[in-house]
């Protein structure tokens, strides 16, 4: 029986009840975080907490217990018997329950906090197979830096990619590659790694931040510059990253193959640094 968290209580998931008047249900008015547990430790929990606080600030929701975020996650891992395996912990905060009105409740209501844990696969020993991705117009809003639970544009685009046999969709805005529907993207061209700079058009990914650090430590040049989609034929390697799936190489942009269609030397080097980072967590 899965145990989840709701507003201060750990209960069997099927017993949880959330009001239909919750603004997360009515408006998608909330934010979320996903933290990865590696059989003994969370990956970069401080960065996840900082991003959660920033997202809450940006949407003007005050959660007085935000500093208990990591404690909630750890307890979910424990009560679900996942301490010695890998897991994903999802937590979301909505503005709370109030009569439907576009303006914020006045006075403010208590936010709704919901979280659950689920088992995740083992860390790959190698980068694994590369995947094909779809390039598509970025139809999302201009505040992608907020980790919002409002993900309709992402899910519509990702579904289209799935129906075309692709494993992710990569957004293009004004001729420039931004990020994926559920990942950040890095492109290697001329022995330089390119990734879109932090802005309202991309999520400040935690794995993205660490990939940049690993690349710099490896002596690889990283440029946080938007990469023109018209220059994708020059891309020697590409890979996407997120907390859930870690680092995954890209084999093709639609019909355009990337390199030889397999993980390249830069991707492999970054993946090895990532593995070393996980090993350091475990001591």
Molecular structure report:
The protein has 283 residues and is an alpha+beta fold. It is globular. 25% of the residues lie in helices and 29% in strands. Strand 14 and strand 15 form a beta hairpin. The chain has helices at 23-27, 45-59, 69-79, 152-163, 206-217, 265-281; strands spanning 3-6, 9-12, 30-38, 86-94, 112-119, 131-137, 169-173, 176-180, 184-189, 192-194, 221-223, 227-228, 237-242, 246-253, 256-257. The strands form 2 sheets. Strands 6, 7, 8, 9, 10, 11, 12, 13, 14 and 15 form a 10-stranded mixed sheet that branches. The model has no long low-confidence stretch (mean pLDDT 96). The protein contains 6 helices and 15 strands. It starts with a strand and ends with a helix.
